[in-house]
Amino acid sequence: MRPWLLLRHFELSFEEIRIPLFVEGYQDRFRQYSPTLKVPVLIDEGQTIWDSLAICEYVSEKYLDGKALPEDIAERAVCRSYCMEMHSSFAAILYVVKPFWTNHLLV
């Protein structure tokens, strides 16, 4: 979601590929794009990046001259702190909501 928001916010063009999950053969199709079977994944000029923060950093450096983050070093540090806190807590959140989410997706 974060890379999608970043790309949209800065009006960078990209192709979005949606692969239905939890259907027969989805992992084989998914593996064509993501070597780790994780989302999101960005493929840019043969380079594959599969972590949301890594994708955002890559896009910022390659296409935005670093403008995805605040220019001021202190503000940039606070921004990274928020991002890292959210990123490191996601696994714990997913552990709690995944059974509910998965059960409802399969219904």
Describe this structure in words.
It is globular and about 50 Å long. It folds into two domains: 1-68, Glutaredoxin; 71-107. The longest helix has 34 residues, at 73-106. By secondary structure, the chain is mainly alpha-helical. The chain is 56% helix and 6% strand. Strands 1-2 form a two-stranded antiparallel sheet.
Report the CATH topology name of the largest domain.
Answer: Glutaredoxin
The helix count comes to: 4
Which runs of at least 5 residues are low in confidence (pLDDT < 50)?
A: none
Percentage beta strand = 5-15%
Number of strands: 2
Tell me roughly what share of residues is in helical segments: 55-70%
Order of the strands making up the biggest sheet: 1-2
The domain tally reads: 2
State the CATH class of the largest domain: Alpha Beta
Helices and strands, in N-to-C order? Answer: HHEEHH
Radius of gyration: 16 Å
- Level-2 CATH architecture of the largest domain: 3-Layer(aba) Sandwich
Can you summarize this structure?
This protein is mostly helical.
Keywords:
single chain, 107 residues, mainly alpha, Glutaredoxin, 2 domains, 4 helices, 2 strands
Furnish the topology, listing elements before pairings.
Elements: H1 2-9, H2 26-31, E1 42-44, E2 47-49, H3 52-63, H4 73-106
Antiparallel strand pairs: 1-2
